[in-house]
Amino acid sequence: MDLVTITDHDSIDGCLDLLNRLGDLPDFVMGEEVSAYLPQFQHTIHLGVYGHSEAQHREIQSLRANGEEIGGLLAAAGPLVCVESFLS
After folding, report:
1. What's the pLDDT score for residue 77?
2. What are the distances in angstroms from CA 10 to CA 6, 27, 60?
């Protein structure tokens, strides 16, 4: 593998703990599975977000009630995102 991450649900605590214990790791990227609600479809989706910062994590968390706003934020910021699943 070239890169490794930890993707907790709506949290980067596992990533931060690893980095606090081991320091900067060249083959590690911040990761998280973000639960985001899409009001238009009345569905929650999970977004895999990778390569973002602590500040971006806080902003993402503040927008979870509207997944479209998260999409706009991430498209402008440049972290890698993938839709992982749909929940009813």
Report:
1. 78
2. 12, 22, 9
- The count of domains in the chain is 1
Q: Which domain holds residue 28?
A: 13-87
Task: Show Cβ contacts of residue 38 under 8 Å, excluding neighbours closer than 6 positions.
Answer: 44, 45, 66, 67, 68
Q: Give the ranges where the chain is alpha helix by DSSP (H).
A: 13-22, 54-62, 67-77
Say if 19 falls within a structural domain. yes
Q: What is the pTM of this model?
A: 0.82
Residues (pLDDT < 50) of the chain are 88
